[in-house]
Amino acid sequence: MLGTIIITIFILGPVGVLSQSAENNSISERIIGGHSAAEGQFPYQVSIRVNGKHECGGSIISSFWILTAAHCVARYPLGVLLVVVGTNHVKLGTPYGVAQVFVHEQYESQTKINDIGLIKLAGRINFNAKIKPIQLSTSLQPPGTSCVLSGWGFTNVQTQTIPDSLQYIGMRIVSVERCRAAISAAGLNMPVVDTQVCAFNAPGRGACNADSGGPLVCNGVQYGIVSWGNPCATGVPDVFTSVAANRKWIAIKSGV
């Protein structure tokens, strides 16, 4: 799971095995080792598509606004973007055009610091059992908190397979200190700062390309946005943009 954008870093990875080195330093974003979601299980999940192809995940935060990662939308003109809601299937759903895109003013494309963006839709979303907004966090969660990550990221790194069915995986919050140590041990020259959150499952289970921008949800509240990881599911923590740390920015831009 994670965005189809492959940058110099990977968007998600487990936090537990700190001794395992990465095979390469490219960053990715997708879900590896997950499960197929039931219909309506993640009603806030959206697919962000570029020229009709799934590129990233995102979350519904109101009837007009979608929360995602900056790197998912920063380089694209509005005309090629489409947001699809209300489905577990990557080729189905209800599409919405994009009216505006906001990228954090201090977003750093190389380090992925402040990797947060907002999409204002051209039309109002009609909520139902399969389409609902997610509550946003205003505080941090302690290490060990159980969370869930959902998305249509790669399920196989070698074949770059995007699943038809929405995938999900359980993860636990990891301390910034442990996350930094794991990333350093993997040979990745990437900072982890206080405006980011790390989470982990196990080697072979984590985010991957095309999961980028998707929501990390703990107890029904969104705490993170998929940003980067060591591709894919190599035993290194996945890194998310903290929703709580950016709650004021979200409110200023969207009114949510």
TrEMBL record:
PROSITE patterns according to UniProt: TRYPSIN_DOM (PS50240), TRYPSIN_HIS (PS00134)
Pfam families: Trypsin
Protein's name in the database: Peptidase S1 domain-containing protein
Entry GO terms, CC: extracellular region
Gene Ontology biological-process annotations: protein processing
Domain Peptidase S1: start-end pairs: 31-255
GO molecular function: serine-type endopeptidase activity
Subcellular location(s) of the protein: Secreted
Signal peptide annotation: 1-19
Family the UniProt entry places it in: Belongs to the peptidase S1 family.
InterPro entries per record: Peptidase_S1 (IPR050430), Peptidase_S1_PA (IPR009003), Peptidase_S1_PA_chymotrypsin (IPR043504), Peptidase_S1A (IPR001314), Trypsin_dom (IPR001254), TRYPSIN_HIS (IPR018114)
SUPFAM superfamilies: Trypsin-like serine proteases
Keywords associated with the record: Disulfide bond, Hydrolase, Protease, Secreted, Serine protease, Signal
